[in-house]
Specification:
Helix content is 12%, strand content 42%. It has 522 residues and is mostly beta strands. A 16-stranded antiparallel β-barrel has the order 3-4-5-6-7-8-9-10-11-16-17-18-19-20-21-24. It has a two-stranded antiparallel ribbon with strand order 1-2. Strands 12-15 form a two-stranded antiparallel sheet.
């Protein structure tokens, strides 16, 4: 009886030992648990090239972190298996005492590397069938972020003016980029940026009607109408330094709205954007991070919306910005001459002008009816000023509020021969709000008032005065992260009959519906 009991106890110990060994083997080959051995390793990467969010200086943002998965080790590869899971739990030593008189049988331990509970023959067969693996350390995360960043967009719309003006093209008065009825292509853009920290470059190319309107006729003559931005950047204090210097053609730092529809609350741009501010500059820009919340930006440029200049003097600008989690604001000022520093004087009577003639500009043998004369007063008296205020608030996650105020004034030439100027001014204000229901749906609204005293911003008539109001409501749907469908309903109101209606009529109101379709890659 005692011998049978001893045999039963020994058999039980062998079965228990084999079960524990099998559990340890399964634990060694199982996937690592979360919190024990991470499945991904990552390193932060560098900064991208300066952005073109128009209206702000380039800032250094962090690239999306690149990550590489660490592959799970193959069975039987001890060096690459996670330490916590690869080490089998030691078999527990039995403390049971065999019954008196029972014979004790001790099983020799298996050779190193062989699983418990298996015979030597089984272990050899398993080793022969297992694939050969090379012992190697776990893969390390590699930062493969490229210094290049490329993005693009296409922008089309369907417009309808309820006043039914004719012809169908360029009939929406005082509107920059949505001027036509029916289907239309606004434009397409391609952005390329290169950033290695200390130096960077930005190139923004645009084609289409919006690009031509944005650039103006002078840029077409210089073959620069399709180059929206071409900027070389240097950070003399290092890639993470507080000073950024830009040289080239870049978007203005003033105003709340930008040229790209997808970056605004509303599809149509307001009066302040089209009439009250510059679009771009050519020259130098310096941005300095004063503190974690305060920045200062300075400009020395040719002037408003021109890669060339019509006078010897330059325009200078300064902007002070503040930013926090829920509120940011900027105060900017730009001043410089925008009048030519020479004038064309007509030759009287039957005389004309021959180039190269010094003593008498006009003579009987002259070929041209007018001659150029110096007008240096334009460099110092014919100045244009702009004060710009932008404030953005985010009181709750779903709601954004945007305020923009402009005040500008200018000395325009009234009589060049007498060096006489006349002062004109303009004043504008815009308040916009955007509410996001979710990632796919949001609504936005904008109200504006713009007053042009002297006609310098509307039609150049020094005797005209015009007051404009606009009310815009927009529904935005994003069925895909790169696609924006924007439906604008907008009412423009003037204090004079300036809006075309039907074939030959003018009215004080202009109501339009515009459906914009914009596909933009990040």
């Amino acid at each position: 009886m005692s011998v049978s009991a001893g045999l039963l106890v020994s058999a039980g110990l062998l079965v228990a030992t084999g079960a524990r060994a099998q559990g340890a083997e399964e634990a060694a080959t199982a996937e690592p648990k979360q919190g024990v051995s991470p499945a991904f390793e990552a390193k932060p990467s560098g900064d991208p090239a300066p952005g073109t969010a128009a209206g702000t200086p380039p800032t250094k943002a962090t690239r999306p972190t690149e990550a590489r998965a660490v592959p799970a080790p193959a069975a039987g590869a001890p060096a690459s298996a996670p330490a916590e899971a690869a080490t089998p739990a030691p078999a527990e030593t039995s403390t049971a005492t065999p019954a008196a008189g029972a014979s004790t049988v001790e099983s020799p331990p298996p050779p190193a590397g062989e699983p418990l509970g298996a015979s030597k023959e089984e272990n050899k067969a398993s080793a022969a069938s297992a694939p050969e693996t090379e012992s190697r350390p776990p893969d390390e995360a590699v930062d493969v972020a490229s210094p290049w960043a490329v993005s693009g967009f296409v922008d089309s719309y369907l417009g309808f003016n309820w006043g039914l003006p004719k012809p169908q093209e360029d009939i929406n008065q005082f509107r920059a980029f949505d001027a036509s009825n029916g289907f239309a292509v606004s434009g397409a853009g391609l952005n390329a940026a290169y950033d290695v920290g200390v130096v960077a470059a930005t190139l923004s190319l645009r084609i289409g009607p919006t690009a031509q309107t944005f650039a103006g006729e002078a840029e077409s003559q210089r073959d620069l109408a399709n180059v929206k931005q071409a900027v070389a950047t240097w950070r003399p204090m290092g890639g993470d330094g507080s000073l950024t210097l830009d040289f080239g053609k870049f978007d203005t730092i003033f105003g709340a709205e930008v040229a790209e529809s997808q970056d605004n609350y509303n599809y149509t741009r307001g009066f302040l954007n089209w009439l009250g501010q510059p679009f771009y500059h050519t020259g130098m820009r310096a941005a300095l991070e004063l503190t974690s919340r305060w920045t200062a930006t300075a400009l020395v440029v040719n002037g408003w919306d021109s890669s060339g200049d019509v006078n010897q003097m330059k325009s200078v600008g300064l902007q002070l910005g503040y930013g926090s989690e829920r509120f940011d604001a900027s105060l900017g000022y730009l001043v410089g001459p925008e009048e030519r520093d020479f004038v064309l004087v007509p030759c009287r009577g039957s005389t004309g002008y021959t180039r190269g003639q010094v003593e008498t500009p006009c003579s009987v043998s002259g070929e041209e009816s007018e001659y150029p004369a110096d007008f240096d007063a334009a460099n110092f008296q014919g100045l244009r000023h702009l004060v710009d205020v932008v404030a953005r608030a985010n009181p709750v996650d779903a709601l954004e509020l945007l305020l923009n105020l402009h005040y500008g004034w200018e000395q325009l030439i009234e009589n060049a021969e007498l060096e006489k100027f006349r002062r004109v001014w303009w004043l504008g204000g815009s308040l916009a709000a955007q509410y996001a229901f979710n990632e796919q749906w949001n609504v936005a609204g904008r109200v504006e008032r713009f007053e042009d005293n002297g006609g310098s911003r509307v039609d150049g008539d020094l005797d005209s005065e015009l007051v404009l109001h606009s009310f815009t409501a927009t529904v935005v749907h994003s069925p895909h992260p790169v696609l924006r469908l924007m439906l604008d309903n907008r009412l423009d109101v003037a204090d004079q009959d300036v809006f075309p209606q039907k074939l030959r009529s003018l009215g004080t109101t202009q109501f339009t519906t515009t459906f914009g379709v914009v596909l933009a890659t990040p």
